[in-house]
């Protein structure tokens, strides 16, 4: 039994995405599965009115908060 089921939590997978940040942000990784649905990867998210944008600047990964 997963923790999500045990805690009786529900997620709207159509509004859920994955954003990787850090030195390995562009390296391949396994798919994120949530309740049988695979989440999409994105380079920007909006959380509580704040937009977080991931950009490639040369060989660096830059996170901009607007």
Secondary structure: elements and pairs:
Elements: H1 3-6, E1 17-18, E2 33-34, E3 37-38, E4 40-41, E5 44-47, E6 50-57, E7 60-65
Parallel strand pairs: 1-4
Antiparallel strand pairs: 2-3, 5-6, 6-7
Keywords:
two-stranded parallel ribbon, three-stranded antiparallel sheet, 66 residues, mainly beta
Short summary of the structure?
The chain has 66 residues and is mainly beta. It has one domain (3-65). The chain has one helix at 3-6; strands spanning 17-18, 33-34, 37-38, 40-41, 44-47, 50-57, 60-65.
Question: What report would you give on this structure?
Answer:
With 66 residues, this protein is mainly beta. It has one domain. The chain is 6% helix and 39% strand. It has one helix and seven strands. The chain has one helix spanning 3-6; strands spanning 17-18, 33-34, 37-38, 40-41, 44-47, 50-57, 60-65. Strands 5-6-7 form a three-stranded antiparallel beta sheet, with no helix packed on it. A two-stranded parallel sheet has the order 1-4. A hairpin with a 2-residue loop joins β6 and β7 (60-65). It is globular, with a radius of gyration of 14 Å. The N and C termini lie far apart (39 Å). The mean pLDDT is 76.
